[in-house]
Every structure is written in C-alpha cells, then in structure tokens.
Amino acid sequence: MGLGKGFGKTILFGEHFVVYGLPAIASALGSYTTAEVKVVDGKGWEVIDQRLATPGYKEKKYDEAMQSIKNVIEYMNIDVGYQKLEIIFSGDLFAASGVGASAAQATSLARAINDSFTLMWDDEKINEAAYEGEKAYHGTPSGIDNTASTYGGLIWFVKNLKGGKNIMEVLRSPKKMALVIANSGITASTTEVVADVRRLKEANPKKFEKIFEDYKDISKKAKSALLKSDVESIGNLMNQNHKLLQEITVSGEINDKLVKIALSNGALGAKMTGTGRGGLVIALAENDEIQENIAKSIELEGYDAWKTMIG
Ligand code: MEV
Fold first, then answer.
1. Are residues 152 and 276 in the same domain?
2. How confident is the model at residue 127 (pLDDT cuts 50, 70, 90)?
C-alpha cells in the first residue's frame, strides 16, 4: 500500500493574473488531502472519495477529477492493463472551490503512487505529475496550486509562459498571521471563469494592460510587506487586489458580501481567493480575538468560516 498527502492552499495575491505570467503569492494550509493506493488483481482503477466537501462540490467536479486521476496515473507510467489501483482519498482538507482541493488531490495521489511503486520521485517530479492532474480542471493552469500543495509554506510564484521552469521562491515572514477563510458554498468552474477572463482580456487589451500594471505594483509591495509581517500594509494590498478582481469580473456578489462582512468586523483586509464567482474569501486579522470576531460574524450570516495561521 502507498500513502501520500497534498496540502490545501490559499492564494493571498494574484489569482487569474498568475495565468498570464504575473507573480502570485500563495500559502499552503495546515489541512491536507490524503491518498491511499493499493494494488489489487484486475485492471483499471477505482476511487473511494471520503473527503468532506461543500454540498455539490464532488458531483460538479466528478468528470474533471476522474480525468485528473487518469492524467496522474499515465504521467507516472503506471500500467493499469494488468493490475488495478484502489484509491482512497481522505484527510482534513474540506473540499471546496478556492482551497486548492483539486491540486491537493492530484499531489496526494502522485505521492501515494510514488510510495506504492517505490519510484523515488523527488518533489520536483511529484509537482510535475500533480500539474498534469491540474490540466484536467482547465487547459492552462498556472501551476501555483500544485506547487503550494507539493512544497507547502508561503510561496512567491511566477509561471514561465514559454514552458520552461516556473519561478518559485519560498518566503519567510517573521510572524504568523491570522486569517479567516469564509466559504460561500458555491462551486465555480475554474475552466469557465478562466476562459471568461481570457475573452474579456482579448476584447479589452488596453484596460487589461492598465490592470496588469496596477497588479504588478501590488504584488511587489505585498512581497515586501509579507517579508516584514507588516499586516496593515498586507491588509490594504488585499483590498486593492480584490478591487482588481472585481474589475476583471471574477468576484461574484457573494464574494463581495463576505468581504464586506469581514471588513466591517475588524479585518485589516479581505479578498476573494482562487477562481472566484463563489468559492472562498480570505480576511486578515490583527490578532486572535479579531480573527474569532470575523469568523463568528460570517457564521452568523450562515456561512462556514475557518480560522488558520499563515506565514
Ligand atoms: C485557481 O485556484 C487559481 C487560478 O488563478 C487558476 C490558475 O492559477 O491556474 C484562477
């Protein structure tokens, strides 16, 4: 039997922009998906998905998840013509849109196959396999989700648009920072939202040029603020990043509502994270007490809220 795990992630800065080669910053979460792989008689593969999930999430993502698993198995050259893989997914990462659940699933599977077949793949190759899995969710994944899921920690990531090695830098912040993750309960299709942004960009090149310039400035300032744990600046930059995400139409009404609740209950900054149009919102708190306050106010409105520390 082989075992593997993949971290969940939250994108602090730069979702969508990262697809176009602009820098993004993500933090792995303490929660992860686990995979267990058993080789049995038969052929093909069978999946038991025991992950906790937002209602409807697994159903909506079913076809993409199956394709993702197939991609990982094929990339790792496992011949399932004369043996069968029994795969069980579990772990404490709640599968929801925005938390990197698809990447965590692909990473955990790659690690479990690596363990089961004693392939001795290093993190770089595991990350490549997980990236193949991510391709099932949309044709042009930036790779940030699988990278955060494989390596963990706080990372600065720039996709290499020419197909070479991506830039990945581990950032170390002097202090841990308190974050609230609010779940809208809505599962968006990354494929559709990424394609919409591409269409919008093609129709409005000048507008996007300006937005990209503004975002580049935010990302540089965010990196230096994170390296100093300057939470006030980080919060402020999160708000600015959220505005740009609104401009490219990926923040839905529900995201804006959750951002508002967080800000009016003491958050230093708040923004949608990941695909958007539902999914998750993150809010930065100055201390544990405010973090608790924000989480409670979101729960009072009927949404799930998770507290986590990043950095
Ligand atoms: C999804 O978690 C993040 C996006 O930027 C897509 C990607 O980076 O591949 C929307």
1. no
2. very high
**160 plus 223 within the same structural domain:** no
3-state helix, strand, coil in the chain (%, to 5): 45, 25, 30
Alpha-carbon separation of residue 92 from 144, 281, 297 (angstroms): 21, 19, 24
Looking at the structure, tell me whether residues 30 and 154 fall in a common domain.
yes
Residue range(s) defining the domain that contains residue 258: 177-310
Tokens, residue 123 = 């993190």
The runs of H, that is alpha helices, within 101-228 are: 101-116, 123-134, 144-151, 190-203, 205-227
Element (H or E) spanning 291, and its range?
helix 288-300
Helix (H) or strand (E) holding 68: helix 62-75
Q: Which of 10, 18, 251 is the best mutation target for the ligand 1 pocket, counting ligand atoms within 8 Å of the beta carbon and taking the most? A: 18
Residue 303 scores a pLDDT above 90: yes
Beta-bridge mates of residue 27: 10, 154
Looking at residue 138, what is its pLDDT?
79
Per DSSP, the residues of 135-175 read: TTT-SS--SHHHHHHHH-SEEEEE--TTSSPPEEEEE--SS
**Which residue, among 86, 107, 87, 96, has the nearest Cα to 33 in the 3D structure?**
107
Q: What are phi and psi of 137, to 5 degrees?
A: -90, -30
Lining ligand 1 with CB less than 6 A are 15-16, 18-19, 141-142, 144-145, 190, 194, 274-275
**165, 262: one domain:** no
> How many structural domains compose the chain?
2
pLDDT in tens, 145-166: 999 999 999 999 999 999 999 9
Q: CA 187, CA 181: separation in Å to the nearest integer? A: 15
For residue 112, the CA-to-ligand 1 centroid distance in Å is 24
Do 10 and 131 lie in a common domain? Answer: yes
DSSP-based three-state secondary structure for 118:
coil
Give residue 142 CA to ligand 1 midpoint distance, Å.
Answer: 6
Residue 160 tokens read as 């290499």
CA 114 to chain CA centroid, Å, is 23
